[in-house]
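ARCHIVE CARD
Drawer: 12
Card no.: 0347
Subject: one protein chain, sequence and derived structure
Cross-reference: see card 0346
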Amino acid sequence: MKCPFCSSDNTRVIDSRPADDNSSIRRRRLCDECGKRFTTYEKVETIPLIVIKKDNNREQYDRSKIEAGVLRACHKRPISVDQIKKLVDEVETEIFNREEKEIPSSVIGEIVMDKLKDLEAVAYVRFASVYREFKDVNTFMNELKKILDK
């Protein structure tokens, strides 16, 4: 592993442990040249997942798009960054556990909405309003009624 400070190839692992999510290994490294320490994460390489968009275009799966959508939905809500990260991790785990090479964006959206519904109602409605493209107040109200009935 190359040192990010001096670009030396002479680094060694001084500590290894599972990362917080237990799906990766956190390694503390020491550069023998400059003496600085840095952290690396080792994760299992997965087969690239292709997302089929609404217009039938295909693009490579990008976790940051899910994070951005959830962050927008949770903006100014009493939801911690850890809760958001956990939600995105759960969505990602569910997506990859399907072991499919292609997945429609609509399936990903439904999984996110299911998780948001359990986390926070306002964030769920915000996400649903963009995702389901509410055309008017009536469709918005129908979605709110569904939440209130449960």
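Annotation on reverse: The beta strands are 11-18, 24-31, 37-43, 50-52, 58-60, 102-104. The chain has two domains: 11-43, 50-149.
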